[in-house]
Design brief:
Elements: H1 7-25, H2 30-33, H3 44-58, H4 77-88, H5 94-113, H6 117-120, E1 123-126, E2 129-133, H7 134-155, H8 164-175, H9 178-185, E3 193-199, E4 204-211, E5 213-216, E6 226-231, H10 232-239, E7 254-257, H11 259-266
Parallel strand pairs: 3-6
Antiparallel strand pairs: 1-2, 3-4, 4-5, 6-7
Length: 273
């Protein structure tokens, strides 16, 4: 079933996210621009270049004609397209990247603002599948940009920006993959009842039942067999494949229920590519 997303709310989130990224990037030194991030092969510069590239593609601007890098982190055609844009901007000064980001996202914001709710609800291809809406695509865009903002922040030793509305939207996007995470990635056995408790500026509880296939449910039929407790921002980084859960287990990532199964789930939360 397609996902319908409120146009006005998503426009606000994307506008705020673009502004946060521009503010973060302004004034970075060349050393900071070239700081490696948790993403293989990508620096702080490459993260912003990637977002410039994606928004440029959405504006239907022509892709650069450069030879893109290859590696284990390039896993599909989307990844290959990303690398073309990233490579094309690797020798550009940071100030030029910021100006280009502000220009491209300004055009994208104007285009989004001109859309109606009906256009947001129209069928669209998305990275999550072809049978979705344009609004879902834009929620994925916000999720992607929010994660990349925090990839940059983490690399530079900056504090998170856990604005509740942005965290909520990102969590809502992750929730669409919880059945896959629990059932396929972690391989929780039939009969498993999973409870994931999140804390921080956003408190949220996800319940997943495995009955042949794993699915998010409103309530569990009995006590949970697997429990994970962690801050919401850590959950986003783990499901986004940004961190190794090992160092967090027993501290800000608490396991409950069957500890062996809980540890398996904790180590298989990553689902983005």
């Amino acid at each position: 079933m397609p996902t319908f997303v409120n146009h006005a709310q998503m426009l606000t989130l994307l506008t705020e996210e673009f502004s946060a990224l521009a503010d973060l990037s302004a004034g970075l030194t060349e050393t900071q621009w070239d700081t490696p991030t948790c993403l293989p092969g990508w620096t702080v510069r490459d993260n912003l270049s990637h977002m410039i590239g994606t928004e440029s593609m959405l504006l239907q601007l022509p892709a650069p004609t450069v030879e893109a890098a290859t590696g284990e982190h390039v896993k599909n055609p989307i990844g290959q397209a990303n690398e073309v844009w990233v490579e094309s901007m690797r020798q550009r000064p940071g100030s030029e990247l910021v100006a280009r980001f502000v220009d491209v996202t300004g055009q994208r914001t104007a285009a989004l603002a001109s859309m109606t709710q009906a256009e947001f609800d129209a069928p669209s291809w998305t990275p999550a599948g072809p049978d979705e809406t344009y609004g879902r695509f834009m929620r994925i865009r916000h999720f992607d940009c929010f994660l990349h903002e925090h990839d940059m922040r983490a690399a530079l030793g900056m504090a998170d920006r856990p604005t509740p509305s942005h965290v909520e939207s990102a969590l809502t996007e992750v929730a669409t993959g919880l059945g896959f995470i629990v059932g396929k990635r972690a391989g929780m056995p039939t009969g498993s009842r999973v409870r994931i408790e999140l804390s921080g500026t956003v408190e949220r509880v996800f319940l997943i039942s495995v009955d042949g296939r794993a699915a998010v449910v409103d309530e569990l039929n009995g006590e949970p067999t697997v429990v994970l407790r962690m801050p919401a921002m850590l959950f986003l980084r783990l499901t986004g494949g940004r961190e190794d859960p090992g160092p967090h287990i027993g501290s800000d990532l608490q396991l409950g229920g069957d500890h062996a199964l809980a540890a398996t789930l904790a180590n298989h939360l990553a689902f983005t590519v």
